[in-house]
Amino acid sequence: MAQATEPSTHGAEGSGVGVVVVPTPLIGGDEADVAPLPAPNPSAQLQIDPNDAPDLSDADSAMGEDASTASTSIMSSIRHYKYENGRRYHAFREGEYLLPNDEKEQDRLDLHHHVFRLTLRGAITLAPFTPTPQRVLDLGTGTGIWAIDFADEHPTSTVVGNDLSPIQPTWVPPNCKFVVDDIENEWVYSPHEAFDYIHGRGLGGSVKDWPRLYRNIYNHMNPEGWLEIQEYEAWVRSDDDPELLNAPAIAQWNELIDEASIKFGKRINIAEGVEQGMKDAGFEDVRDDIYKVPIGTWPLDKRLKELGLYQLEQMCDCVEPFTLALLTRVLGWGYDETQVLMANVRRDFRNKRNHLYISFHFVYGRKPASIISE
Description:
Blueprint: E1 19-21, E2 24-25, H1 56-60, E3 82-84, E4 87-89, H2 103-119, E5 135-139, H3 145-153, E6 158-163, E7 171-172, E8 176-180, E9 195-201, H4 210-219, E10 221-232, H5 248-264, H6 274-280, E11 284-295, H7 302-330, H8 335-350, E12 356-366
Parallel strand pairs: 2-7, 5-6, 5-9, 6-8, 9-10
Antiparallel strand pairs: 1-8, 3-4, 10-12, 11-12
Helix pairs in contact: 2-7, 5-7, 5-8, 7-8
């Protein structure tokens, strides 16, 4: 039986400031069986289930269940976390990322991973890379769940995940490792460490200079390598209530989160600009596949109903981490008034009279074979 190893204190692969997380391998790694991919539905009018009747008791419920999981410490020097308003935030590059990294947030991130997989009927990528990429980088890996799943499904790939927070597990596939690093630093990977596939998901709010990030990705990718950015629009919508008159707290929340993240310098709602950003960086064959992801069980379609069930819980769980620091630190709101807004937003989400959704963008493109990195 394998045993966990002590964390390494050696410098991170390709990083002048990072710390390598040396994981303990898990045995296994068969290719995953997934259903055929659903077609993108950016302009589809999702059908409403007339039997999903409003329940006032649901609308009055402002909060969901909070689960709890244990996180693994990696190195004591980066565990001096900042605690604020009852939530824990990263210590490495303190203040560069305004969402917490505590166990509640880790649970939400893993739930969000499930939502992404349900959206693609089990798949975790859309980029049509062939053959299997040898070296893979997961930007802002979070809990590491995407990197672990990719490593399991592609046992011949070497998968590296990086993040500001050392919250990843140590028991992982033998072809997966994690690095504590800031993707906005200058990348110092050597030419022989270039990647064949680079993935990023939910990076909105983490990046100040997107053109620079795309340049770093491009210059550290092998010719004909693929970049895939999976990003959700940080803007809740409704086709039958476009002005969100029945969800006024969410309408206000949309505006406030956008305003605060822009003022902070790292806008969250950037999904619609990813396609053009990749093209401007030199990537070819760029596609933006867009899927409407419902919030709640209101769709008539059974698959979308299940998807909406999980997304509703994820959205209710995301209200606090997306709101607390942005409103109190950036916009100067008081703690109590922020709590009132968050409770009203959750109430709007759980109101079955609302037929809400968010658009997920799966954007992927290929580095040309004929261009040499500068």
